Target: Hydroxyisourate hydrolase
Amino acid sequence: WSKGEQSTALATATDSGLQELSDWNARYRQKFGHVFLICASGRSAAEILGELKNRYSNRPIHELEIASQEQMKITELRLRKLFSAKTKADSTGSQYSTAVASKAEKRVGIIGQHLTAPLEGFPAKAPQVQARTRPPITTHVLDVSRGSPAAGIEVRLEMWKSSQPRPSFGGTDIGGWVLEGCSTTDRDGRSGQLMSIVDALSPGVYRISFNTGKYNPGGFFPYVSIVFEIKDTQKFEHFHVPLLLSPFSFSTYRGS
Model:
């Protein structure tokens, strides 16, 4: 698959262009600490080189986000190819037993629904398969002071389930938060599963907390908690709540 995706670039490349691309790849890896990622399908060698040069000036934290998005494009493209190949194989007859073929078809069906079905408005009589392939709330942590993912940070996800409708600014919240799940960030800065994979997320107020004091003993924040609310109209959406961390500052945003 990778050769096919890069066929346009290889067909339009020159010896001098390939050498320049190799030189810029080496510079990129030295600056960012990882290889240059781009969805190369349909792109010429000149386009790829131009994109590499443009992205080289990015801040490491910004470039890591772009690289993650490009990797997602590549993964989705290959899943579509896998689904298409399975469909063609089925049309010419399967060599597997009925039971094995049925299991394979179910797996491919889940992939296909994830790629093509909208997040909302599923038919009332849709098959009982989950459209999601990951929990509806996820996170990762980037250490902006080092320009790299932050590994080994403990993460907790909680939901407000008190008799009060929602926590208030300045109010007491003892006993109102219920743990949904906990994990630790991996070498890519991403946490493990913090909650069950469900199609419809329960609306309400959530809190995600990070044990930053253990990661940065000399830092200003012993821990960081982010409180956010999910409306009933958003229950089929995905919520990615990252933490951009340094010893004396942090920020966050709602991603997808």
Q: What stands out?
A: The longest helix spans residues 60-91. Confidence is low (pLDDT under 50) at residues 113-130. Strands lie at 137-138, 141-143, 148-149, 154-160, 177-184, 204-210, 224-230, 239-240, 243-246, 249-252.
